Amino acid sequence: MSNSPIAKEVGKRRTFAIISHPDAGKTTITERLLLMGQAISVAGTVKSRKSDRHATSDWMAMEKERGISVTTSVMQFPYRDGMINLLDTPGHEDFSEDTYRTLTAVDSALMVLDGGKGVEPRTIALMDVCRLRDTPIVSFVNKLDRDIRDPIELLDEIEEVLNIKAAPITWPIGCYRDFKGVYHLSRDCIIVYEPGHGHERTESKIIERLDSAEARAHLGDLYDDFVDQLELVQGACHEFDQAAFLKGEMTPVFFGTALGNFGVDQVLDAVVDWAPPPQSRDSHERTVEPVEAPFTGFVFKIQANMDPKHRDRIAFVRICSGRYEKGMKLHHVRTGKDVRIADALTFFAAEREHLEEAWAGDIIGLHNHGTIQIGDTFTEGEKIGFTGIPHFAPELFRRVRLKDPLKSKQLRQGLQELAEEGATQVFFPERNNDIILGAVGVLQFDVVAARLKQEYKVECLYEPINVWSARWVESGDRKKLEEFSNKATDNLAVDGGGHLTYLAPTRVNLSLMEERWPDIKFRATREHH
């Protein structure tokens, strides 16, 4: 099997996402990675928010306005002899559920940390999602061209806060105005930093051997202190172990500056050399191997209006096995219908190209006129359903009020479609006609309001509501569930998918309910069925 065309193509592929806290430099590193793959000729940094050159990977109107990437886009580019699929994730104050779900469609992740700040709250939340599948993580400590914290302290923090062993691969020589490059621990060489090459591809100068006269001259006054620090690092830090990395137990750590386009190539090489190719996937029925010939794939995200000129929605499908060919017939398992796919898309940020073929590990876009939902499986006929594509319990809630009461039909349609797409979650309380929206981050509410206005011509207002969290409720005992439903009506709602949900006003209330109703399961995630 290993010499089959599928196995060859699968072996070439690396599908990964970038995880970071807002402003750690994720969009800039995305640009630099695309530059490495020569997918763009000039990297457009997002720092100067007024500049004309918007970052190539940020594309909806709100992103252009705010200099942030709200939607998760997919970029494919060749690198060395392989093919990279980079899944971008929202990177500002507000991630959304999309961000979490994107991590179910990758085989590895690149964690970007701000060297001045270290591990931040959103990084922790995203690492928790990566843990659900033991995703291998490569780490990049960014912003070495500014003041950073002590690198040893940063490694300790990664280990303590994220509970993963950190193995430095490169080590920084100075920082800010004294930043001279990095020392590669296993290759015994210095990779020299020269400022001013942020927007172009350049070969870094390399000085072999730390004990060479050239290395001493390059480090100057920093030399003796650096050698002492290095001894400490080599004595105290883990050596890189690829088996531990593949199990999600250890992360290789690189240092650099994305803005200065330094260190990014080393990270991309690490993804190609060490990160896994497309992996097997569990379905309810069996485990699917990527090298199997029949096509299978699942929908992890739905995006409306990628092209303002088209009122369409695109379903993003991660191919799990086999090969997509233009014009092939696919079986949509949930609906039981066969569909001919003549026009799947491949993505390069906002460039949408029609695709002739794609392989396991690739992401393709299917045109969706309202029939495809998140979690749907496509096959060549086999009836399977992939697992591990959850809804995550929202953390923030708002009640929706219409400015024009006559538009309630459009409001419901708009919210239903936006909920299917994963832009928000919608809940309909049992006891009244309220509509409650749930989100993982505040900006999702702004996005929903803007899109309702733009796409559905509906203006809405939000009001605060006393909901602390939502839990999907289920029970093997129908009588108990009925009894619970009668007693807890005031706090029960049905979500957009028709699932019974408990809206807890406080953490204490939820704990009490869980104690009082041991036969009822209160779930913080819900599989898409």
From TrEMBL:
Coiled-coil positions: none
GO cellular component: cytosol
PROSITE patterns with a match to the protein in the record: G_TR_1, G_TR_2
Family: Belongs to the TRAFAC class translation factor GTPase superfamily. Classic translation factor GTPase family. PrfC subfamily.
Tr-type G domain mapped to chain residues: 11-279
MF terms (GO), sorted A to Z: GTP binding; GTPase activity; guanosine tetraphosphate binding; translation release factor activity, codon nonspecific; translation release factor activity, codon specific
Any Pfam family matching the protein: GTP_EFTU
Main location: cytoplasm
The entry's keywords: Cytoplasm, GTP-binding, Nucleotide-binding, Protein biosynthesis
A biological process term (GO) from this entry: regulation of translational termination
Localization: Cytoplasm
PANTHER family in alphabetical order: PEPTIDE CHAIN RELEASE FACTOR RF3 (PTHR43556:SF2)
Protein name, entry field: Peptide chain release factor 3
The keyword Magnesium belongs to this UniProt entry's keyword annotation: no
Function of the molecule: Increases the formation of ribosomal termination complexes and stimulates activities of RF-1 and RF-2. It binds guanine nucleotides and has strong preference for UGA stop codons. It may interact directly with the ribosome. The stimulation of RF-1 and RF-2 is significantly reduced by GTP and GDP, but not by GMP.
Binding site for GTP: 20-27, 88-92, 142-145
Keyword Lipoprotein assigned: no
InterPro entries: EF-G-like_DII, EFG_III/V, G_TR_CS, P-loop_NTPase, PrfC, RF3_C, RF3_dom_3_sf, RF3_GTP-bd
